[in-house]
């Protein structure tokens, strides 16, 4: 059997570990340990399980076991600090977390070439970034094109929700005329990003296109042109632009694929994908359906961290937006689900960011929540979600300046995100605390234009208008608050959570005439 994960092929028949076409040296005992973890990847294996399987029950010290685990991590490009593939769960055991594809032995000119086995496409969005063509006519510029691909690959790989083929495998196609469908088949990915770089007269032009491999359909294409002043800043700039554009496009394409599947064929991941557009609607009914679909996914896979986080946010929003029939139940569910999400992977930026927001609204442990939010953006500085959640956390903690900076960074990450109305409304709330009322109105109106049934936008406008003495506009916005949230009272709003440090916002709501 050959197990494929990332750019590695783990061949149990030949007892070899390959990274691309290269054989990775690995001691027999370490091979056996890795073999056992991969074969039992669906569960946590205990220390005793490993000792019985690898050492035949002989006495082994904790230090010896730790050493072998660290060697296995090193052989697969992992580390004890990152634990991307081999996770240690204190007092419980160990688990292999990598996305594994199984392939039977196939004949081929190079036994170590994992690409010949046509690996299965993973459930989650999978992408390969092919080497960009150097159109400059200057062989010395090849390094720039290759560096651009490496930067984009690294940035995409920080999204744990994506399966990204490593550079070494993608670069086996360098300099070759490729058929995108064949690339997708050989690498086991659904999407391929290809591009070209042209440098001339102090400028660089980069063209990119995202293609669905199976059909050859173009999902997205764009062109970027920049001055050649600082080459590293240029790479960062283009990487951010490309990643910000294609990451949401991947999920839009995945959602479209999921909606075409028959209900009896749905998996936990399909339920997750179907929950997302309902979640974005932000109505009482949409949120209820998103929560229902998320719980369907959790029934199939109770350790699905992303969907646990999504369901937790849904229950939190029921409380914060005044939709909850039983707020205490919703609050308990939100906290339970955030803990479940963290227990699956507390080193994932998506999970950390979401958990930080749920905790900020439902618990209020500012120090812990800021630590989680900061760690999320450190793990993936290209994530809209991480920066947006950090903005919420800092606003709730009473640090509006840092909140605004985080929200503005989030908008730069994803300027067309489906939930930007929440970001603009929160920017407005933070700006009110900074007494920047005119700017708060601008932000509130942007949120209103994107979602005219979003009460938070009208609360922002009512408060800002009231502080400026624009009473007629304040009363009009207050009326829209009550239209979208008929049971709204200021005391109930404060009790929902997340606004104890929003003194000026609340003062403005009182001035606007909203009921106490």
TrEMBL record:
Domain annotation OmpR/PhoB-type: ranges: 1-98
TPR repeat segments: 384-417
Keyword NADP tagged: no
Keyword Translocase on entry: no
Any single GO BP term: regulation of DNA-templated transcription
GO molecular-function terms, A-Z: DNA binding
DNA-binding region: 1-98
Protein name: TolB amino-terminal domain-containing protein
Taxonomic lineage: Bacteria, Pseudomonadati, Pseudomonadota, Alphaproteobacteria, Hyphomicrobiales
